[in-house]
């Protein structure tokens, strides 16, 4: 038996490693660097805890989650592991005790906050000790494009310079290919082996629908499928969180609000009620969730579009931790895209940052508009693969009907162009449908060649066409010009008739046939 397996059994009481823990652990024990991408709950901790125990010296774990350090250390001590932490919650006497235990070679594991680690005092101390490894937890915090960015993480590349012989293992639950590269570059882990593991959550059913009347859609979903269940409803703004929670209560569904603007006492009371009691719905901003581990969350519903696929995965991943069936439900519409683009345009970041954010949003939109299996697309995004359609997402269960939208798209794009790329969706649709309203007449748009060329479709089907054209990058929405639509380079071949376009059939009145449900 290997030393690693022996430790797994003797210390942690588990029989076998999960894929790919053993390969990771074996590598680190033998002094090799690793970059580990594993979803929450996948078992990242053992990947550095076991090598720390097997290798000579103390394993040093860098983590930004100061609030969780105490729990982790307590848990390890219960297993008989000599663990300690260094962060701002300790007084100077306690710090000295930890430091002398480390120097005396009495520690197996030491958790350190990043700002503490990079202090010269800490580095000097570590240089005098035997270090088994450095584990960099939540490694995506090094990414400047992510929302968890921590400036202190940028300095962690000094570990490689100062401790060239100590293996380093970076771990995170969220990293697309781009973030992965960024982590590797910034932490000097380009030669490290990358392990990407097990992102699939087969018991979660992914469902993404068009936003029509979101409150009624949510209510119907909760009443028909989740009466009495615990779940999370995510909203973008604090105000919407409070309004939605109040409204659900009025509808007889026990709901509590949670967002960073609530008084701390109320926030933690709501959180602990959600964890303790059964059948509560928590309505929350994305502030809710870090470190939440409630196994029986039966659904996660999104009333607003998450900004990235990572966020969507992370948030929906809070459902069904117990392995039983759970729903990830989302509704979105054109207004969501416009609102998010607007927020991104108005954010403080550099042009490059904004472009990166837009690209991420585009990937999320791609997932929404996709007509093939959502799980395959989701896993593909994380570099994981699923060879067959999953059979447990909406597009698998109820195949999306598509229609040849080439001509409609050409008309839509032409109308945007002929009206001067200065108008928003509503006006362009009025022109297409040939409505002689005041604005149209005032602008003389009833004299344009495109006026009325789209009279065969109603306003809703046109909105669906425009949403898909925006979501797929044929059109952009210029927020500095009140949502004016603009043609993108991608539109050219379509306009020239060199390309055709299949569009999703949203419950389109143009066809008048009800969507068939497969039994
Ligand atoms: P992560 O840090 O990836 O979110 P954890 O390291 O906290 O995940 O592990 C999640 C849970 O899985 C923990 O309760 C842990 O003890 C358990 N676990 C991890 N590895 C194994 C294993 N090989 N066998 C059984 N349970 C495991
Ligand atoms: Zn599927």
From TrEMBL:
<dbReference type="GO" id="GO:0006260">
    <property type="term" value="P:DNA replication"/>
</dbReference>
<keyword id="KW-0862">Zinc</keyword>
<dbReference type="GO" id="GO:0046872">
    <property type="term" value="F:metal ion binding"/>
</dbReference>
<keyword id="KW-0234">DNA repair</keyword>
<dbReference type="Pfam" id="PF16124">
    <property type="entry name" value="RecQ_Zn_bind"/>
</dbReference>
<dbReference type="GO" id="GO:0016787">
    <property type="term" value="F:hydrolase activity"/>
</dbReference>
<keyword id="KW-0233">DNA recombination</keyword>
<keyword id="KW-0347">Helicase</keyword>
<dbReference type="InterPro" id="IPR004589">
    <property type="entry name" value="DNA_helicase_ATP-dep_RecQ"/>
</dbReference>
<feature type="domain" description="Helicase C-terminal">
    <location>
        <begin position="214"/>
        <end position="364"/>
    </location>
</feature>
<dbReference type="GO" id="GO:0030894">
    <property type="term" value="C:replisome"/>
</dbReference>
<dbReference type="GO" id="GO:0009432">
    <property type="term" value="P:SOS response"/>
</dbReference>
<keyword id="KW-0067">ATP-binding</keyword>
<dbReference type="GO" id="GO:0043138">
    <property type="term" value="F:3'-5' DNA helicase activity"/>
</dbReference>
<dbReference type="Pfam" id="PF00570">
    <property type="entry name" value="HRDC"/>
</dbReference>
<keyword id="KW-0378">Hydrolase</keyword>
<keyword id="KW-0547">Nucleotide-binding</keyword>
<dbReference type="InterPro" id="IPR006293">
    <property type="entry name" value="DNA_helicase_ATP-dep_RecQ_bac"/>
</dbReference>
<dbReference type="InterPro" id="IPR002121">
    <property type="entry name" value="HRDC_dom"/>
</dbReference>
<keyword id="KW-0227">DNA damage</keyword>
<dbReference type="InterPro" id="IPR014001">
    <property type="entry name" value="Helicase_ATP-bd"/>
</dbReference>
<dbReference type="InterPro" id="IPR018982">
    <property type="entry name" value="RQC_domain"/>
</dbReference>
<dbReference type="InterPro" id="IPR036388">
    <property type="entry name" value="WH-like_DNA-bd_sf"/>
</dbReference>
<feature type="domain" description="Helicase ATP-binding">
    <location>
        <begin position="25"/>
        <end position="193"/>
    </location>
</feature>
<dbReference type="InterPro" id="IPR001650">
    <property type="entry name" value="Helicase_C-like"/>
</dbReference>
<dbReference type="InterPro" id="IPR032284">
    <property type="entry name" value="RecQ_Zn-bd"/>
</dbReference>
<keyword id="KW-0413">Isomerase</keyword>
<dbReference type="GO" id="GO:0003677">
    <property type="term" value="F:DNA binding"/>
</dbReference>
<dbReference type="InterPro" id="IPR010997">
    <property type="entry name" value="HRDC-like_sf"/>
</dbReference>
<comment type="similarity">
    <text>Belongs to the helicase family. RecQ subfamily.</text>
</comment>
<protein>
    <recommendedName>
        <fullName>DNA helicase RecQ</fullName>
        <ecNumber>5.6.2.4</ecNumber>
    </recommendedName>
</protein>
<dbReference type="InterPro" id="IPR011545">
    <property type="entry name" value="DEAD/DEAH_box_helicase_dom"/>
</dbReference>
<dbReference type="GO" id="GO:0006281">
    <property type="term" value="P:DNA repair"/>
</dbReference>
<dbReference type="GO" id="GO:0005737">
    <property type="term" value="C:cytoplasm"/>
</dbReference>
<dbReference type="GO" id="GO:0009378">
    <property type="term" value="F:four-way junction helicase activity"/>
</dbReference>
<dbReference type="Pfam" id="PF00270">
    <property type="entry name" value="DEAD"/>
</dbReference>
<dbReference type="GO" id="GO:0005524">
    <property type="term" value="F:ATP binding"/>
</dbReference>
<dbReference type="GO" id="GO:0006310">
    <property type="term" value="P:DNA recombination"/>
</dbReference>
<dbReference type="GO" id="GO:0043590">
    <property type="term" value="C:bacterial nucleoid"/>
</dbReference>
<keyword id="KW-0479">Metal-binding</keyword>
<dbReference type="InterPro" id="IPR044876">
    <property type="entry name" value="HRDC_dom_sf"/>
</dbReference>
<dbReference type="Pfam" id="PF09382">
    <property type="entry name" value="RQC"/>
</dbReference>
């Amino acid at each position: 038996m290997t030393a690693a397996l022996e430790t797994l059994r003797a210390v942690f009481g588990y029989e076998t490693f999960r894929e790919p823990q053993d390969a990771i652990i074996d590598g680190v024990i033998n002094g090799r660097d690793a970059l580990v991408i594993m979803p929450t709950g996948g078992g990242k901790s053992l990947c550095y805890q076991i090598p720390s125990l097997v290798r000579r010296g103390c394993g040093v774990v860098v983590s930004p989650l100061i609030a969780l350090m105490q729990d982790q250390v307590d848990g390890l001590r219960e297993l008989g592991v000599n663990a300690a932490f260094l962060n701002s919650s300790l007084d100077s006497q306690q710090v000295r005790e930890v430091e002398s235990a480390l120097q005396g070679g009495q520690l197996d594991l030491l958790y350190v906050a990043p700002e503490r680690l990079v202090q010269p005092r800490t580095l000097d101390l570590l240089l005098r000790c035997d270090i088994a490894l450095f584990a960099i937890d939540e490694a995506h915090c090094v990414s400047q494009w992510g929302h968890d960015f921590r400036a202190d993480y940028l300095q962690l590349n000094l570990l490689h310079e100062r401790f060239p012989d100590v293996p380093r293992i970076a771990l995170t639950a969220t990293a697309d290919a781009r973030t992965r590269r960024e982590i590797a570059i910034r932490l000097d882990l380009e030669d490290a082996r990358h392990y990407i593991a097990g992102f699939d959550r087969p018991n979660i059913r992914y469902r993404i629908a068009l936003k029509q009347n979101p409150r009624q859609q949510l209510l119907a979903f909760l009443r028909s499928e989740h009466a009495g269940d615990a779940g999370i409803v995510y909203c973008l703004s604090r105000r919407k969180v409070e309004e939605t929670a109040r409204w659900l209560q009025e509808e007889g569904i026990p709901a509590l609000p949670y967002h960073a603007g609530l008084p701390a006492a109320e926030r933690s009371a709501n959180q602990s009620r959600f964890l303790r009691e059964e059948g509560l719905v928590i309505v929350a901003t994305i502030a809710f969730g870090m470190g939440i581990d409630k196994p029986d969350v039966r659904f996660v519903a999104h009333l607003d579009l998450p900004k990235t696929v990572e966020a969507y995965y992370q948030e929906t991943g809070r459902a069904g931790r117990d392995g039983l069936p759970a729903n990830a439900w989302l509704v979105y519409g054109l207004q969501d895209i416009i609102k998010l683009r607007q927020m991104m345009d108005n954010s403080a970041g550099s042009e490059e940052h904004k472009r990166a954010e837009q690209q991420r949003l585009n990937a999320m939109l791609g997932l929404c508009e996709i007509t093939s299996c959502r799980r395959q697309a989701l896993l593909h995004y994380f570099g994981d693969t699923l060879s067959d359609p999953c059979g447990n997402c909406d597009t698998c269960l109820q195949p999306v009907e598509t229609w040849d939208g080439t001509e409609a798209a050409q008309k839509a794009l032409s109308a945007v162009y002929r009206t001067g790329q200065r108008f928003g969706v509503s006006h362009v649709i009025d022109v297409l449908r040939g409505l002689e309203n005041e604005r149209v007449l005032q602008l003389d748009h009833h004299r344009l060649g495109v006026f009325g060329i789209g009279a065969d479709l109603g306003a809703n089907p046109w909105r669906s066409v425009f949403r898909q054209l925006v979501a797929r990058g044929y059109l952009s929405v210029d927020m500095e010009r009140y949502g004016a639509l603009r043609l993108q380079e991608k539109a050219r071949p379509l306009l020239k008739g060199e390309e055709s376009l299949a569009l999703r059939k949203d419950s389109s009145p143009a066809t008048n046939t009800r969507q068939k449900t497969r039994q």
